[in-house]
Every structure is written in C-alpha cells, then in structure tokens.
Amino acid sequence: MNQNPSDKLKSRTKLALRRLLLAVRQPQIRVPLLILLHTVIFSLIYSFSFAARYDFALTKAASKLLLDTLPAIVIVKIGVFYFGRHFHGWWRYVTFADLSSLLRVSLFSMLMIAFVDYFFLLFESQIPRLSILLDTLLTIVVVGGLRCSLRFFDERVNPIWQNRVRKPAIMVGAGHSVGQLAAQINSNNFIELRITAMVSHETRWHPTIFSGVPVAGLSKDIAEIAKKYRATDVLVPSGLLSGRDLRQLVQDCNANELELRVLPRMEDALQGSAKIPLRPLAINDLLKREPVVLDSDRLVKLIRGKRILVTGAGGSIGSEICRQLLGFAPTELILLGRGENRIHAIHLELQAKANEAGITLTQAICSITDEQGMRRIFETSRPDIVFHAAAHKHVPLMELHVGEAVKNNIYGTSVVAALADEFSATHFVMVSSDKAVNPTSVMGCTKHLAERVVNEFAQTSETRFVVVRFGNVLGSAGSVIPIFQQQIEQGGPITITDSRMTRFFMSIPEAAQLVMQSAAMCKGGEIYVLDMGEPVSIVQLAEDLVSLSGLPPGSIEFEFTGVRSGEKLYEELYFDDEMTLATEHCKVRAARPRVYEDISIHDEIKSILQIVDSDSKVIRHRLAELVPSYASNTDPNSNLKPV
What we know:
Elements (H helix, E strand, L loop, with lengths): L4 H20 L2 H27 L6 H24 L12 H24 L9 H33 L5 E6 L3 H11 L6 E8 L8 E2 L2 E6 L3 H8 L3 E5 L5 H13 L3 E5 L2 H4 L9 E2 L16 H7 L3 E5 L4 H10 L6 E6 L2 H18 L2 E6 L5 H11 L3 E4 L6 H6 L1 H21 L4 E7 L8 H19 L3 E7 L1 E3 L5 H10 L4 E3 L5 E2 L1 E3 H14 L5 E4 L5 E2 H11 L9 E3 L19 E3 L5 E4 L9 H9 L6 H11 L17
Parallel strand pairs: 1-2, 1-5, 2-4, 5-6, 8-9, 8-11, 9-10, 11-12, 12-13, 13-18, 14-17, 15-20
Antiparallel strand pairs: 3-4, 6-7, 16-19, 18-22, 21-22
C-alpha cells in the first residue's frame, strides 16, 4: 500500500532529526557545535547590551567601539565557559546545580571582561560599565532559558512527538521528600508512569502543589481521586505507611482495579540512576509493625578479623547470617551443613564478595551429631565465634521422627556447645524458637532442652553462651507463606488449620541481625527476644497474600483442616516465671533462664539418648518427664507413622 505523502514527509523528517541527534551526541561534533552556538549568542547579547546603553541610537564612535571590543568580549566568555565545562554536559539534564554553575561562570566572565577592558583594551574609551552588567544579566537569562527550554522540550514535547505514552499515576505521600521523588519520576522519560496527583496519608491535608503535581486529597479517597485524574497506578514509597494503613490501601486498590507498586526509599531513589525501580508489594511491607533495624556499630569490633563458624549455613537463617557477616570483615567464615547442595550454593553466592574483601570462605560438610567430624573441624578452624543455626524445625514432620529431632536438636547442640567450650570460642549463639515456651510439640521440646544445654554451659564456661528466641520467619524454607503462595498459584484452596491461629512474624534479615546483635550485647547466659509487636492472624495473612497476588477478596477458597500434631493456636515468647529485662536496644529484651537446681541437663541427655531409637511413645514419655510444661496435643491413637 502506498504511503500518504504527508506521512512520508513526516517519517523522513523524523529520520533526519534522529540522524542529526545521533551525530550531535558525538563529543567531537557536539563541543565545537556548542562553541559556535555560544559564539553567536554571546555576540548578540553583547551587541544588544551595548546598544541598550545608548538607547539603541549608536553614534559613529560608539559603533566603532562595539565592533572593536566584540571579538575580545566573545573570546573571554567562550574561554571562561569552556574551562567551566559548560560545553561538555547535556542540556536535557539541566538542574539547579547547572544553573548555579551558570551563575558562577557568568559573574566570573563579567570580572574578566572588566579586567581585560581596563588593562588590555587600549582604545580611546572604555566599555560602559552598564553594558558589562547588562551583558552578564542577559547571559544568565538567555543561556539559562535556552537550557531549561531544551529540557522542557525533551520531557514534555519529545514524548508526544515520538508517540511515547506514559500512564498517569498517583503518589501516596504529601511531604517535601515525596514531592521531590515525584518530580524525579516525571523528569525521567525511561519510566512508564507520570505522577499526575499526590494524596496525603495523614488524617488531614492541604491543597499544595509540588513541582506542578497537586496534592488532591487523602489516601482513603484514592478511588475518587484516581477516577478524576484517570490514573491506573498507585505508587507508595517504601516504609511510608504502617502495615495496617498499607493493608487498607491494598484493599482499596484491588477493589478499584488500581495497580499498587512500591518505590525505593528516598535516599536510594535520588542517587542519579537513569531508572527508578518499581517493585510489586511484598509481604514484608504488610508487617503489623515497623521492621526492626538493629544497631550494628558494635558488630564491627566483635567480628572484624575473627574466624566465624555458622552451623546450618545452607538454611534460611544460617545463609542470611553468612551474607550479613561478610559486611563486618571476618578473617574466615566457615559454612557448615550436612546438605552439600545448599552449602555449595551459598558458597557460590558469597565467593565473589568474599574474595573482594579478602575473606576466606571454608565449606564444611558434616552433621552436628557427628562428634568426631565436628571435632576435626574445630581443631582445623579454631573458630572464635559460633552461630548455631542448624536444627530440625518442621513441627508436624518431627512428630513423625521423634528420635531424629532429639538427636539433631538436643544432642547436636550439646556436641557443638561442648566443642566451643573446649576450643575456647569467645561467643556461642544458639538460634531457638518461641515453640520452646510451654511446648506442645516434639520440636518445641527439643528446642527447650537445647536451650537448657546452652544455659548450663553458660554457668561455668569462659565462652559467652547465649540463646536467641524468635517467632516465625517470613519466607523461610518450609514456612507458611511459600505454601500459601503455591496454593494461590494453583487456584486454591488455601489450607489453614484453625481460624483462631495466630503467629509472631519477622523477616529473614531481622532474624539474622538479631542473632548477630545478641552476640555483641551478651554477657553470657541470656535469652534474647525481639519485640515483634502483636501476633498476626493466619487468616489475615492468607487474605493479604491473596490481595498481593492481584486477586479480589473471596476469589480463593479457604479450607480449615484442624490443628495438626504438635501445633499451638498461639505462640508465646516467654515462660511465666522468666524475668525479662530491657537491653541496650529498644526493640530487644533479655529473659533470664529458669533455674533447674540439682538437675544436670547433660545427665538427662545421656538418659534420653539411650532410648533415642526406641518407639516414639517411649521417647515422648521421657520428654514429658524432662519438660514438665510439655503438653502434647498429638493423638495417641493417631495412625501417623514415620516414612
């Protein structure tokens, strides 16, 4: 089909302009071209300024003075602007910093012109001072205006010329920093969105305009405001809203078919990147409290130059501890686990960063229940600090494998703790669980007894033994969130054991930071607990995940299956008789362990290890004797059998 003549002319014009722009972008062409352009501009400005001094009625002498001084004036200004590097940047990216630089070089060129005129230009009369002043002012106005006009063309006209459509969006937040972020987005043609309005997340608002973007109302009225401005997307700066407010905003956006996306923090977004990353909302954003950021200043002194052993280094918590430890420059980091694939994977992930920092990464494949194997590792590596994250943690699975839970969680902890004491490690930090408090499961019982092992070592050892106890970790392997997400992808149903069930939640980075921070704060014998706010309803968590998946409420069926063996309806962080104390960190508390007088946990461990391969009922009975608070909810007539 023949192309319309007007369309053909338009396409040829676009092609010619595109080729011209490509040519101009070459430095060897752009700089001379800008010098030539400024030569013309400076000549016109000076001529106008000189003529204005004489009310545009130049005498013969004045005209001669103008022509005689024009080359010198232009050369001085070109030289000052060149050495001020005003011919080497891009006008399309002009900012207030560029205008400030323009002001400086213009004032400097004015002083240079006055100096040259007074000492070097040997004419019958000097350049009128008013002409020099007017020339400076016009240079600032004209050159600055041209640069701003080019940026305006690039941001507003060029997208229309190229048929580049940017979707209208609404920004949540009405403060100065959020306004700056909106301006940054609108000035960046690489981003597919354009902020057309802002909404306040406070209870009150004022009709203000930030960089041309109006504050149009409150976030609770997002539906009406989006309709008014024809917006399809809503942007939320990370960390701006509390979990409760963000949850409500998610519901409002889903109900009105608005896409909600999260922006990075202000300090990350304004580092000059060509593209500001937008990401989908994550479950961490919906915590019912602000994420805890622990003070890590003391960790540098503790970890720098030390040899660190991490057991369970391939697991969710262990691997995150390893990632964060690299930032504190240990001499050696020993990655210990019994799963070769996981240890190999975390080693590959960390190797480049470790090499760059001069940190030795050592892989160690061994079960913590292998006393001889663990001894060889301690003899070879001589770790200064031990982070003990290895454990069997899956509650229903450990109900089926009681003996394995006892071997790994109790005996394994005893082996590692004894070696840390024998080889004079300075710190030993054990990762425990809230399920150790008034346990209803085998896993909780074994964790409780492991805590007692560590506490007993703390009474006599020079090593600082400490326990870190926390709740469920968002997104960790085997946790409820990945299971729910998989069920949502399959169209449901989401299986929940009981509608009344609640849990404490924390993020994986929070868990790792708490473990390391505890090592820095401990004196020996403490149980550290993170303030995790209010417990989260599992039903509410599932509803949040459905919303995050972009599905309307009620689109995924919930199926309640009943409490599984070993599960609690709610979790506890302390025993009733554990005294809790404030610590140096406002979000961390320390619990003093319960006192078990005249009872050696090491003797008790020996007794239970003698029956560890017996019938599970025998082991459960012995666990109940050792842990009086153990209240098993496992049906004794259950037909569940080990695989």
